Amino acid sequence: MHTDQAINIFLSGELGAPSAENRSERRAAAGLAVLHSDDAWNLERRVADEFVVRGQPPAAALAAVADYQPVPSHRITLIDRPPNDHAAYLAAGYRCIATEALMVRSVANLPPRDGRYTVEDASTSAQLAWLNAHDPAGRSWITPTRLREPRLRHVFIALDQRPVARGRIYRVDEGHSYTTHLYTAKDYRRRGLAQALMAQVLHDAAAHGEQWSVLVSSEAGLPLYQALGYEHRARLVVFEPDGL
Question: What is the pTM of this model?
């Protein structure tokens, strides 16, 4: 997959499946892509803007952000920009909150499933309530609207009568999916749970005729995804206003 295509899947995936609940949309500001999020998160409505900077120098990008007049809760995400750009954003009152990698994997030559764990799909209101009440990160991450959305899957592994690993897969189009919300309970890490969950996700993608899987990895998560066969496509550096 070419980097441009991977970035477009990333932009669509970050906005999520549109619905009456999710009124997020892609906008533009002087050449910058703007992900305007207007959605429910953790049972509360959240409005935010994310400015995606790829080719623009800092002065032009910062001017575009200022002219747009974003909501206070906004981010600037640099894609493959040189490290010496960072000082300009810091000087403008932003702080760096994450360095991430855009990763892609062809849905072919898949890793074996891990028979030690059962990966389940959330499909009922009872599962929704149970998963939200016992989420390993303490978030209510599934809503009834999302549970009914055919383009979304919410997968999890339960051990000791509680969910210990979970993730969301958004089928952006017939050939591509975007995975988010991956999380493993702290006291269950280093047991292969995330790898088992993702291996099953890839096998399910193949069964649905998908061709590529796309996700964003933290620096800590890179070894996991590289072991699963994901390849690096772009470096993302995320800034937000200092003091948020």
Answer: 0.94
Residues 39-55: b if buried by 16+ CB within 10 A, e if exposed: bbeeeeeeebbbbbbbe
Asked if residue 27 lies in contact with residue 34, where contact means CB atoms within 8 angstroms, the answer is yes
pLDDT at residue 161, rounded to an integer: 96
Model confidence pLDDT, tens digit, residues 144-170: 999 999 999 999 999 999 999 999 999
Count of other CB atoms within 10 angstroms of residue 224: 17
DSSP tag of 109 = S
| Residue 163 C-alpha from the chain's centroid | 20
Among the CATH numbers 1.10.10.10, 3.40.50.970, 3.40.50.2300, 3.40.630.30, which is that of 106-230? 3.40.630.30
Which residue in the block uniquely carries the two structure tokens 């600037």?
76
Residue with tokens 């990698």: 101
